[in-house]
Write a structure and sequence with these properties.
By secondary structure, the protein is an alpha/beta fold. The protein contains eleven helices and eight strands. The structure holds coenzyme A (COA).
């Protein structure tokens, strides 16, 4: 199973990306599993918070590049469906990041209410190096929370950055000792689960209200352009180079 779900505390479901042999790269089955896990948590009245994490001391290496290369049968649609699901969740979504958080591994944090990273975490949005473009409303949300210069640095240069930079940029709330991000996220999830759920949901909804339509519009527009980029010569050459090195 590439996505594991487990109720780890009263009202708290842990959703684990679980392809450690691929650094938890997200293939179609993984996206399907994530979408289903979010829908199940939303539908289950006993669940009050979800925590997304990765197996094997790694968050995720992002979209499976084999799927990117074989765009004809996969395309970005299912990734967009996941982004729409996570950004539309009405219950609190938390993330615990250890190790690599690449591509959508970083941009999904923009849609989490709370996120925590271990000291050894490494973030990267290498969309340009891959011949692609930003996704997940990152071209809208990152300048908003990190400022335009920082967003340009992180999205245009696309270099790897550490957890302190992620915290300064507003991608994570706090940096934990290495290996302790999940414990911290679960603590906060338990705290949220013990609060009045309707009031938590209302507060989340109000926090999202001002940007909801712009986020949805940006996810769609980036998705359209991303789909075009996937079949571009620049992107296909970058995917082939990655896969050839293996
Ligand atoms: N898609 C498909 N396979 C991937 C992958 C991805 N996104 N990320 C890692 N893998 C595979 C590797 O090909 C490797 O397979 P192999 O054992 O058959 O050679 C295996 O997972 C382990 O990865 P490896 O690169 O050896 O681990 P590492 O610790 O040296 O580096 C990363 C980890 C995440 C820095 C590196 O794998 C990487 O840069 N991956 C691509 C990230 C990316 O560009 N994602 C798309 C973002 S839009």
């Amino acid at each position: 199973m590439s996505i594991l779900t487990e109720t780890v505390a009263p009202g708290v479901v842990q959703i684990t990306m679980n392809r450690p042999e691929r650094k938890n790269a997200l293939d179609r089955a993984s996206y399907r599993g994530l979408i289903d896990a979010i829908a199940a948590a939303e539908a289950d009245e006993t669940i009050r918070a979800m925590v997304i994490t990765g197996a094997g001391n790694c968050f995720t290496s992002g979209n499976d590049i084999k799927d990117f290369a074989a765009v004809a049968d996969s395309g970005p649609r299912i990734a967009m469906d996941f982004l729409t699901a996570i950004s539309g969740a009405t219950k609190p979504v938390l993330a615990a990041v250890e190790g690599f958080a690449v591509g959508i591994g970083t941009t999904m944090l923009l849609h989490c209410d709370l996120a925590f990273a271990g000291k050894g975490a490494s973030f990267r949005m290498p969309f340009v190096a891959l011949g692609l473009c930003p996704e997940g409303a990152s071209s809208y949300l990152l300048p908003l929370i990190a400022g335009t210069k920082k967003a340009a640095e992180l999205l245009m240069l696309g270099e790897a950055f550490g957890p302190e930079t992620a915290r300064e940029a507003g991608l994570v709330n706090a940096v934990a000792d290495e290996g302790k991000a999940l414990a911290l996220a679960l603590d906060k999830a338990r705290a949220l689960a013990s609060l009045p759920p309707q009031s938590v949901a209302l507060t989340k909804s109000l926090l999202k209200r001002a940007h909801r339509s712009q986020v949805a519009e940006t996810i769609a527009e980036e998705g359209r352009l991303f789909g075009e980029r996937l079949i571009s010569a620049e992107a296909q050459a970058a995917f082939a180079a990655f896969l050839m090195k293996r």
